[in-house]
């Protein structure tokens, strides 16, 4: 008799297609890994590029009940809305798993240690295309392009990015004294806590 692995299901919402496909890819990596103690499933609603508070509200709506922890995955947008989203998430037991700069930065960190911040979106776009050997004119929001990026990310890359994010966050804490500025003005990736939770439970 073959014993099936238990499945841990995470519910919530993501900002867009990049995030949704990333976690589908992570699910496949974990579930096809012989050393995984459990299988994983992500039931995430796609917020279609909604603001941080929109993503948090969708995550709350996608929760099974008020006592069930849900996850909201998004990046930094609109300072006041971003800070409000964190408050709203904490109030409703939602895990705010944000990539502070943007998701492109998070993807770059899987392959490179980049600690600098930039206020220009296109700087991360150029770096991402270079990192994953993409055509300079490709659309980073296109499913085919996203899948090409994800095909180059292994489970070991994700293990390593956890350590890299810890270093980025530690550097941020040393640079910024106040939490609000720390979260908003410097690279700071709270998505680390969610990734650690997943690996602790399934690997």
Strand percentage lies at 5-15%
Uncertain residue ranges: none
The biggest sheet, with number of strands, parallel, antiparallel or mixed sense and barrel status, is: 4 strands, parallel
How many angstroms separate the termini? 23 Å
Order of strands in the sheet with most strands:
2-1-3-4
Mean pLDDT: 85
Gross morphology? globular
Please report the number of helical segments.
Answer: 9
Give a count of the beta strands, DSSP E runs of length 2 or more.
Answer: 4
The percent range for helix content is 40-55%
Series of H and E elements: EHEHEHEHHHHHH
| Class from secondary-structure proportions | alpha/beta
- Computed over alpha carbons, the radius of gyration is 17 Å
Architecture overview:
With 203 residues, the protein is an alpha/beta fold. 51% of the residues lie in helices and 14% in strands. It is built from nine helices and four strands; from the N terminus they run βαβαβαβαααααα. It has helices at 17-31, 52-61, 79-91, 103-108, 121-131, 143-150, 155-175, 179-185, 191-202; strands at 7-14, 39-46, 70-75, 94-99. It has a four-stranded parallel β-sheet with strand order 2-1-3-4, with helices on both faces. α3 (79-91) links the parallel β3 and β4. α1 runs parallel beside α6 (143-150). The chain starts with 6 loop residues before the first strand and ends with a helix. The mean pLDDT is 85.
